């Protein structure tokens, strides 16, 4: 439709319907091609029949240095508009940025949260977002010399961070599905919601390998295993980008955060990462490399430093590995404030030096635009940075714009933003993802599933009826009724014959016991108790924030946050009086189910010893309450599996499963050395039996090297999914290797009484080891293949020699 708009000279009626003024005489929208620079000539960059490289080359040749630098600037987006009712006004700030800086990008134009101070009243709903982005795009095109469209980047780690968007589970929940195809389907939905509102780049997926759950951003990680993260990263990238960026349904993916961000010293956000070359290449880099090979177009540098070199100035990382090694041809964003932080790291005396170090290391775009403006121009003028290098970075950004079709079709259709049917489809998908993410940790004496015939049930706890604690960090304000809490989800599964009593009992962090009496009373009067405890990443307007947008932890914090960007922890126990309340209710002798809603693994030793049934729902998103109800009442047989080991205490950290063999997990004198729950662990309402494994080498196949076949039977009385996990151990190698490492997995439905055969074909890279200097090779020798239902329960083994 929009291409026809241009071919029909962007007719007045359609412009009016789109909320745009009719094109004036001599405007760039008059012809059946767009005369962006208004010179009356069809320049090569305006010619749709030419290739992207040809169009980029011509456009760059016409630009001044100042205009080139402008294309690399990505200032904050939400200050660029004001909303008055349903009217959108572009601010003087936006006009100044276009006039004086020639900006090429904006970040988070549609973002709404307490940090941006954009609310349901002052922020953009989907219809207004489409109107605002069209208005913005038109202003930028008409008020820049060459008419270059603007690129809009949006946060989208588990849904578009904008009003009216679908909120899915956070990344730790997504990976707990062990279903990358499902998460890829989710990413398609996210891309559609971003693109239909006028966005072009989605920040996600987060590919940080987790090594310390005290880290505030644990919820954003897919887990502790590089292969698993790779599979989810590839699925997310392909879902966002699709096969055609000009489709109007897809967006560019940004990989975060490059690199080694998820293993900070002391669990402090942005802290130093202590890791060597071999571990970096075998653990940290593989998910990024896989996502780059899947076609990811942008990468974001991370705040931390590795071996004394901040990632934002690490040429070896950003150029030698990413570009020269992996042939990445997209562009690199700084993280917000990451360039300025080079001064904070003590490796740059001022922002000019920070600009030089970051740009020459390989950072193309300045998110926040506080460093590159003027400094980059001066460095070029002084001959310290070759203009050809500047041209190369600018070309990368412009190529993205051409490939997205922004020079041919810069607007969105305001009549077809997000229909109610599409939103309902996405909500149904959110429920499906949420229930596949739920992990059953304990089910003593078949406490679960609960009977719908129960006469009374008490739903107790700080997360039982808390809207924002269901969602995690990086979520926008929600309209009333848009999020299904656990209490509502339970009510939705019960009829009028059941009395449901609710009591909050306590808060996440507060030391007050004022709500205990009400909670105990509700429990005494009920046949069953569901306690909903855990954590919170819910920002509010009482919070203070760093310049990066991270929450500033202060002694007088008034909210319940114990997770979310900036909120690191020193302990991993349930905070406040949660455990004490749980102990008092358990003492009543009622059947108790613990539902955990949280963003990081918590040490729940007492609960594990004393509560008969425990369900881990992570932050399950806006349909989380219904998904939890599906599991509690047996409408869905849980099959989520942990992607992060759950420690007994912080004293065990780090406690990831794929440790080197020399680092034997022997017991401490005062505690076991094993985690409370291991990587890959999760229960079902049925039972599975592993009955056989075989392995054979494949000859003459470039895409696969070894075929492994496993037989699994469902010996229980209910249909269910089993997550079959295949691990590998190299018996002798040139350097230390793990006791086991995941090389394949499959979530497989198995009917009650059925036996299925599952075949994995392992490519050569499953057996390769890093050799140093960027080289990989298979080292001949014996390998042990191990299969089972978790990393600690590999029941069957088969050796093979290569």
UniProtKB/TrEMBL annotation:
Residues 1-21 form the signal peptide. One of its GO terms (biological process) is glucan catabolic process. It comes from the Bacteria. Keywords: Hydrolase, Signal. Pfam families: Fn3-like (PF14310), Glyco_hydro_3 (PF00933), Glyco_hydro_3_C (PF01915). InterPro entries: Cellulose_Degrad_GH3, Fn3-like, GH, Glyco_hydro_3_C, Glyco_hydro_3_C_sf, Glyco_hydro_3_N, Glyco_hydro_3_N_sf, Ig-like_fold. Residues 722-791 form the Fibronectin type III-like domain. Coiled coil: none annotated. One of its GO terms (molecular function) is beta-glucosidase activity. Belongs to the glycosyl hydrolase 3 family. PANTHER family: BETA-XYLOSIDASE, PERIPLASMIC BETA-GLUCOSIDASE-RELATED. This is Beta-glucosidase. It comes from Acetobacteroides hydrogenigenes. The lineage of its organism: Bacteria, Pseudomonadati, Bacteroidota, Bacteroidia, Bacteroidales.
């Amino acid at each position: 439709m929009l291409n026809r708009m241009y071919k029909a000279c962007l007719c007045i009626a359609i412009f009016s319907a789109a909320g745009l003024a009719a094109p004036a005489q001599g405007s760039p929208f008059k012809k059946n091609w767009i005369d962006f620079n208004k010179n009356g000539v069809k320049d090569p960059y305006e010619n749709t029949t030419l290739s992207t490289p040809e169009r980029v080359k011509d456009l760059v040749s016409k630009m001044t240095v100042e205009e080139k630098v402008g294309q690399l600037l990505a200032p904050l987006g939400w200050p660029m508009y004001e909303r008055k009712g349903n009217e959108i006004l572009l601010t003087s700030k936006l006009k100044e940025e276009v006039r004086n800086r020639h900006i090429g990008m904006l970040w988070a134009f549609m973002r709404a949260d307490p940090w941006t101070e954009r609310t349901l009243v002052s922020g953009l709903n989907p219809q207004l977002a489409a109107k605002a982005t069209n208005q913005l795009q038109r202003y930028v095109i008409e008020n820049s010399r060459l008419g270059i469209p603007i690129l809009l980047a949006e946060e989208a780690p588990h849904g578009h961070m904008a009003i009216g968007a679908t909120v899915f589970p956070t990344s730790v929940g997504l990976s707990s599905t062990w279903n990358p195809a499902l998460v890829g389907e989710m990413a398609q939905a996210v891309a559609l919601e971003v693109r239909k509102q006028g966005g072009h780049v989605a920040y996600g997926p987060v590919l940080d390998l987790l090594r310390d759950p005290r880290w505030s951003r644990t919820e954003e990680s897919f887990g502790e295993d590089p292969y698993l993260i790779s599979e989810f990263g590839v699925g997310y990238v392909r879902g966002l980008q699709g096969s055609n960026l000009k489709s109007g349904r897809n967006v560019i993916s940004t990989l975060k955060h490059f690199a080694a961000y998820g293993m900070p010293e002391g669990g402090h956000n942005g802290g130093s990462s202590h890791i060597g070359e071999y571990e970096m290449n075998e653990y940290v880099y593989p998910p990024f490399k896989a996502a780059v090979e899947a076609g990811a177009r942008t990468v974001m540098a991370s705040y931390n430093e590795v071996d004394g070199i901040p990632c934002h100035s690490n040429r070896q990382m950003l150029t030698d590995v990413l570009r020269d090694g992996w042939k990445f041809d997209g562009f690199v964003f700084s993280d917000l404030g990451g360039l300025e932080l080079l001064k904070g790291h003590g490796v740059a005396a001022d922002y000019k030096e920070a600009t030089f170090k970051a740009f020459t290391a390989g950072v193309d775009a300045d998110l926040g635009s506080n460093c590159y403006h003027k400094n980059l121009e001066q460095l070029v003028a002084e001959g310290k940075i070759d203009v050809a290098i500047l041209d190369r970075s600018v070309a990368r950004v412009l190529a993205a714009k051409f490939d997205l079709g922004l020079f041919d079709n810069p607007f969105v259709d305001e009549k077809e933003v997000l229909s109610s049917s599409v939103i309902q489809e996405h909500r149904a998908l959110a429920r499906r993802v949420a229930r596949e993410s739920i992990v059953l940790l304990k089910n003593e004496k078949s406490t679960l599933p609960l009977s719908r015939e129960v006469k009374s049930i008490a739903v107790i706890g700080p997360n039982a009826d808390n809207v924002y604690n269901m969602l995690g960090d990086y979520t926008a304000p929600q309209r009333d009724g848009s999020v299904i809490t656990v209490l509502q989800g339970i009510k939705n599964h019960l009829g009028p014959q059941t009395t449901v009593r609710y009591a909050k009992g306590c808060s996440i962090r507060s030391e007050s016991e004022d709500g205990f009496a009400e909670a105990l009373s509700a429990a005494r009067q009920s046949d069953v108790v569901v306690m909903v405890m855990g954590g919170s990443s819910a920002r509010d307007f009482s919070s203070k924030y760093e310049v990066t947008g991270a929450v500033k932890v202060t002694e007088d914090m008034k909210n319940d946050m114990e997770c979310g960007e900036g909120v690191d922890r020193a302990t991993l126990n349930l905070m406040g009086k949660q455990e004490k309340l749980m102990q008092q209710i358990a003492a009543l002798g009622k059947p108790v189910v613990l539902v955990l809603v949280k963003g990081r693994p918590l040490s729940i030793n007492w609960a594990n010893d004393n509560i008969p049934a425990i369900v881990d729902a992570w932050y399950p998103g806006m349909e989380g309450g219904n998904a939890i109800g599906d599991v509690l009442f047996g409408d869905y047989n849980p099959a989520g599996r942990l992607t992060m080991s759950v420690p007994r205490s912080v004293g065990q950290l780090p406690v990831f499963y794929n440790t080197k063999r020399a680092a034997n997990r022997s017991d401490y004198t005062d505690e076991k050395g094993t985690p409370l729950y291991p990587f890959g662990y999760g229960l079902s309402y049925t039972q599975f039996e592993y009955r056989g494994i075989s392995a054979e080498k494949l000859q003459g196949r470039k895409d696969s090297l070894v075929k492994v076949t496993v037989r699994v039977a469902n010996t229980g009385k209910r249909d269910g999914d089993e997550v079959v996990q295949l691990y590998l151990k190299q018996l002798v190698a040139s350097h230390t290797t793990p006791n086991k490492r995941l090389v394949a997995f499959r979530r497989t439905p198995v009917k009650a009484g059925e036996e299925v055969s599952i075949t994995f074909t392992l490519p050569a890279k499953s057996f390769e080891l890093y050799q140093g200097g960027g080289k990989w090779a298979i080292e001949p020798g014996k390998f042990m293949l191990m299969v089972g239902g978790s990393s600690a329960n590999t029941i069957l083994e088969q050796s093979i020699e290569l």
